[in-house]
Amino acid sequence: MTAPAFTPTGIRFEKIEKRYGGLYALRQVSLEIARGECVAFAGRNGSGKTTLLRIAARLVRPSRGSVMYMTSSGAAADSGARSGFVAHATMVYDELTAEENLLMFAKLQGIAEPGARAAALLEEVGLLERRNSLVRTFSRGMRQRMAIARALLNDPSLLLLDEPATGLDPEGIAWLANALRQMRWAERTILMSVHGESEISQIATRAVRLDAGSVVADTRGGSEMHAILTFAGA
Amino acid sequence: MALLADTTVLLGKELRTEFRSRELLTTTVVFILIVIVLFSFTFDPTSDESRRFGSGLLWLAFLFASSLMLQPCFLREQQNDTLSALRLAVDEPFAIFLAKLTANTVFLLLAELVLLPFFALMYNVPVLRVLHWLALVFFLGSLGISVVGTALSAVSAQARMRELLLPLLLLPLLTPILVASTEVTKGLLDREPFMQWKGVVILAVFDLVFLTALWLFSEYLLEE
């Protein structure tokens, strides 16, 4: 039996290592991310950003080390955390309509009044008029909006975003940046991987640079943060 | 209760997506039909031979078709990484398997239901008087195929040689299902039909054992 799900407010990585065969994806990563922080993970392709986010989402088990989640009461737990996760892929079904997708995931997460929640989110991401269209008929940007809507279903206090601006047009990026700003003001904790400095990465309050699976820089605000984010895009 | 509720939601998704595309059902029915027709060229299907060999070729056709049908079961979840979304959403990972194996059993039974009259006509085998017993054997056999096939589909979907791996793992493991189902069906298609309860018990025990193993290891089978 699994522990009852809760949405965490903060997260702590303790000496995380992840190996795929002989290849290290992460080496001794230790980070503590407090409630309300918005952390941008920067680094080249293969630096370990996605692996770290998937470990945070509990989709990948670390080879060594542990992940602790902070509950709303301030206690720490190592299981049962249910955060919102946006991955490279859309994580929604092409053969279902936008509404069917959100309804299904809302029911699985035990959300009260799943129909109302799905409709509210579709309106928020600007897809209410296309609620009865199959997702396979959507553009890449619309699919990404669907992915974000799915991740927000359980109103998560901890949001994990793996390159969330992928496929979004300038209008979509502006919408996402605005949504993330609102979440930050609401003291949601946000972890996101970014490539270079953009409207999205500017929302971050902290930047962490990964290189070959290790944390090589970690800073809050200032010019150093700008340097980390621009280096990632280089 | 959460397991049942999640399974019901996921089963609805499986059935909706399949009945919308009809990919699996169509290919399975067409495949079994081709095998039955091809086998009929190798001997006189109206003779007593069909009573002796008919049940075996029918179950072989079901088995080969199921290895085709089960292949996309988890591969489809990789397309948009929807398996990760399911893992994040459900409380019990076993619900994902339970929904998929129930859907696969339904699809296999539907294919068998469509093809049984065709088989009976082509091979001149009366099936109406033993239809209820055949339904029991088809259900137990199809359930066993689906339980093992769904589990192996999850394993093979993450492997490099995924298209080859599933039949290689599935067919040897399903030998007890093939033998028991064939023997019971053979008895039912006899001139003096009789029920081989020993075979039915073997099928039921096989289903129960593999279903329990799947419940125990479902979390590990879905890990990246």
Overview of the structural elements:
- The complex is a heterodimer of chains A (234) and B (224).
- Chain A is α/β, with parallel strands linked by helices and 234 residues long.
- In chain A, 30% of the residues lie in helices and 26% in strands.
- In chain A, helix 2 (98-108) packs across helix 3 (114-124).
- The mean pLDDT of chain A is 88.
- Chain B has ten helices and no strands.
- The two termini of chain B are 27 Å apart.
SS strand fraction of chain A: 25-35%
Number of helices of chain A: 6
Q: What separation lies between the terminal Cα atoms of chain B?
A: 27 Å
Question: In terms of per-residue confidence, which ranges of chain A show pLDDT below 50 for 5 or more consecutive residues?
Answer: none
Q: Structural class, judged by helices and strands of chain B?
A: mainly alpha
Q: Biggest sheet of chain A, open or closed, and with what strands and sense? A: 6 strands, mixed
The total of beta strands of chain A comes to 10
Distance between the amino and carboxyl termini of chain A:
46 Å
- Quaternary class: heterodimer
Q: Which percent band covers the strand fraction of chain B?
A: under 5%
Helix-strand pattern of chain A? EEEHEEEHHHEHEEEH
Q: Nutshell version of this structure?
A:
Chain A is of the alpha/beta class and 234 residues long.
